[in-house]
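Exercise 7. Given the encoded structure of a 489-residue chain, write a plausible sequence.
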């Protein structure tokens, strides 16, 4: 499925085409009440240093104890990425100094991660599917946070995040454009949210991306990459890649060379800038953490976790296409969030799936977007929207009246069927009543009626007049058929 050097994915430089190669390392905070090696709370937004155990503060003699829930969540995530689960993995110390890292090292996994190779299938808006290889997923501790804006001459440190469990999910360099990278992160976040293993909240830092970017001439070996650290929004990921690819192409076309380095993205200026020259793995002096035994899982544990996984987006999408007759695109839109998919199914159950999808995607989502609400905050329930779909399906109301009814139910609430009764919104399918209206309109516009015989598209004007005369309640199909007969076209 992976297309290499596809012409539409190439970037034009001054001296020819370039291919952009992108790989991602995503840090995803594990959804868990307690930290990876301590019982301290992971809750966001606490008073600084209020969620810090002696382990997280690295007091002498404290020992880490693995949190089984974090292990379970990592395994669930691995299975959701169709990845190899390693029954034996090892925690290592990654040594470096930083003021917000009281231990002087981060407990991470180096040579033996808990999860090995997997994949994510990403559907692009143009219908293409790309397969992005997953290199590994490992567990590690988050660091604390230095605060430089609290005092004129001092920096403070907040250790609330110190020791919180992260999953570092490393992709292969399979992405070829900013759009693909954005779609990949979106899809990965959807999968983690379905699983409930990471809330995916990028504003709160629950999901951060390190983006590796390099460029090359099509068909040539990989170029030198630069890593853009800690990008915290999907839009910024796109902007950072576009900028960085252009920057590298510019240097190479001027005869320069790219030096491997770590860069930061400045959202205000829309550019990346150098942070430090890239360190190599050996700089960190990794070694197995002597306080922790290798982590061993039983096949039964993994099987049990597997047996309790929820239906994931790809499977749900395939089922929506199969069972409700939806297009792949519509099914993809509906499964992007689990709540949206559930809402759709509640509307579609026992009804015309395509019609239900149309009303959910076009009317409901359109309205929710306009008001900046998500489906959980929808003023209209699935039962109410389902009733509207029923009324259309049984031809009690026309599609046009249904839109009016939608507005009423949206703003006033109530039972759609009762509203239709009380406000006389029923569709007129009584042929006699429609005929009377048509006769009157033709009589008043005999010149147009003559013209229509030569120019049948004029029927549209007559349809409009009849619909207007009926207050939008005439059955459009009946109007069309009767008009054709009366006008002799
Ligand atoms: Mn990491």
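Solution.
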């Amino acid at each position: 499925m992976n297309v290499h050097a596809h012409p539409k994915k190439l970037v034009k430089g001054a001296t020819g085409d370039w291919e952009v190669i992108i790989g991602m390392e995503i840090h995803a905070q594990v959804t868990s009440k307690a930290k990876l090696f301590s019982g301290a709370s992971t809750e966001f937004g606490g008073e600084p240093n209020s969620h810090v155990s002696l382990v997280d503060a690295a007091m002498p003699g404290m020992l880490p104890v693995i949190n089984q829930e974090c292990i379970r969540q990592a395994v669930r995530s691995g299975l959701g990425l169709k990845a190899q689960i390693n029954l034996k993995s090892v925690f290592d110390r990654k040594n470096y100094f930083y003021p917000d890292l009281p231990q002087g090292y981060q407990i991470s996994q180096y040579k033996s991660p808990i999860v090995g190779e997997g994949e994510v299938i990403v559907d692009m808006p143009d219908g293409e599917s790309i397969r992005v290889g997953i290199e590994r997923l490992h567990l590690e501790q988050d660091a604390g946070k230095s605060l430089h804006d609290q005092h004129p001459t001092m920096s403070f440190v907040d250790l609330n995040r110190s020791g919180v469990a992260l999953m570092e999910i490393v992709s292969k360099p399979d992405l070829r454009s900013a759009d693909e990278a954005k779609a990949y992160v979106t899809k990965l976040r959807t999968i983690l949210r379905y699983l409930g293993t990471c809330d995916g909240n990028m504003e709160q830092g629950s999901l951060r991306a390190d983006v590796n970017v390099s460029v090359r001439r099509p068909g040539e070996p990989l170029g030198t990459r630069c890593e853009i650290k800690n990008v915290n929004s999907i839009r910024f990921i796109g902007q950072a890649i576009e900028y960085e690819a252009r920057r590298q192409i510019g240097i190479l076309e001027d005869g320069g060379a790219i030096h491997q380095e770590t860069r930061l993205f400045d959202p205000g200026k829309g550019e990346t800038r150098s942070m430090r020259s890239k360190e190599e793995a050996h700089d960190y002096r990794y070694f197995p953490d002597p306080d922790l035994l290798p982590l061993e899982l039983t096949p039964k544990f993994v099987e049990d976790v597997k047996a309790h996984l929820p239906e994931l987006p790809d499977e749900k999408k395939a089922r929506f296409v199969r069972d409700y007759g939806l297009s792949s695109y519509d099914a993809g839109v509906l499964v992007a969030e689990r709540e949206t998919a559930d809402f759709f199914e509640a509307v579609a159950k026992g009804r015309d799936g395509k019609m239900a999808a149309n009303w959910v995607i076009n009317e409901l989502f359109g309205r929710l977007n306009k008001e900046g609400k998500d489906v959980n905050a929808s003023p209209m329930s699935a039962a109410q929207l389902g009733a509207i779909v029923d009324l259309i399906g049984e031809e009690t109301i026309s599609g046009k009246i249904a839109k009016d009814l939608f507005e009423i139910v949206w703003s006033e609430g109530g039972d759609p069927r009762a509203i239709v009764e009380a406000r006389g919104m029923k569709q007129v399918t009584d042929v006699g009543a429609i005929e009377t209206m048509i006769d009157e309109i033709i009589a008043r516009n005999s010149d147009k009626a003559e013209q229509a015989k030569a120019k049948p598209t004029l029927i549209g004007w007559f349809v409009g007049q009849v619909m207007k005369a009926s207050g939008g309640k005439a059955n459009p199909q009946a109007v069309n058929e009767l008009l054709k007969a009366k006008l002799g076209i």
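Remark. The domain at 431-487 is CATH 1.10.10.410 (Arc Repressor Mutant, subunit A). Students should compare their own answers with the one above.
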